[in-house]
Amino acid sequence: MKRRINSSSVKTIRLIAVLFMIFTVALSGCVEDEQNNTTDNQTEGPANEGQNTSNEEYIYGMANVESIEILTLESFPVQIKVISEGYLPDGCTEIDEINTEREGNNFNITITTKRPKDAMCTQAIENFTTTIPLDVQGLSAGNYTVNVNGVTGSFELAVDNTLDELPGPAPSGQQEITESDNGTTISLKKGETFYLKLKENQTTGYSWELNLSQGLSQISDKYYPPESKEGEEPLVGAGGVRQWEIKADSEGNQQITAVYKRYWENETGTEDKFTLNVKVV
């Protein structure tokens, strides 16, 4: 028996077939696009990751310095550090560079700043403190001026800031006097010289003040810092030795006296003292 299919059923079947084809084509396109996007992302991702695309520009200026403090460290050679305090205008500004130049006895220090050109910054003042070491080793005794962005200060080197070798032994036949000879008497012939060596720590501000009677004269006066091993920094706060060469000029009983004190303080009677009697024949 043959089944009849009316025209309405045929149209319905054809419509379903067309819709199925359209759906299949659209689905394949979406899948392909997704695969292409995945491939593109995998290709471009690592390449962009290592590239620096920042073209940030900066505005440069001078730091606002309000005060400076100059510190002298207890060491020899003397070490000088400058503590500078000031402020930055906002939260984006930072210290850029610190440059130090010396012209004679003047140290000129410049502190510059930078901030991103188009950055949105907190409008709050930021205080800063920087410690700047000065290269003063090898400088001669004297007064020095420090200028940090227009704020000035000064410091003084009481002695040449150089390291000398330790004093060697006295020449053969020449007497060498130390603290252990305090209060004793030595004999010299007229015209002879001898060495006097006393321990001294200049980092504390103390030094020996020497007085000679008229029949004696001072040939030389030199300070020797503490000994340090090769390649090592000098011991901070350690003392050295002061050495004088003294000549007997006149016959008779002569005397050397010395007091260990800070030069700017008055004598109180509690200081360490040294006395040496010299008989010149």
Describe the structure in your own words.
- The chain has 281 residues and is an alpha+beta fold.
- The protein folds into two domains: 58-157, no CATH class; 176-280, Immunoglobulin-like (Sandwich), CATH 2.60.40.2020.
- 15% of the residues lie in helices and 46% in strands.
- It has one helix at 7-49; strands at residues 58-62, 64-73, 79-88, 94-103, 106-116, 126-134, 142-148, 151-157, 176-177, 185-188, 193-200, 206-212, 216-224, 240-248, 252-262, 272-280.
- Strands 1, 4, 5, 7 and 8 form a five-stranded mixed beta sheet that branches.
- A hairpin with a 2-residue loop joins strand 7 and strand 8.
- It is rod-shaped.
- The model is unreliable at 34-53 (pLDDT under 50).
| Quaternary class | single chain
Q: Label the overall shape.
A: rod-shaped
Please give the CATH architecture of the largest domain: Sandwich
Q: List segments where confidence is low: pLDDT < 50 over at least 5 consecutive residues.
A: 34-53
Number of strands: 16
> What is the CA–CA distance across the termini?
165 Å
How many helices?
Answer: 1
The tally of domains stands at: 2
Looking at the structure, the CATH topology of the largest domain is Immunoglobulin-like
Strand content: over 45%
Q: Structural class of the helices, strands and pairings? A: alpha+beta
Tell me briefly what this model is.
By secondary structure, the chain is α+β, with helices and mostly antiparallel strands.
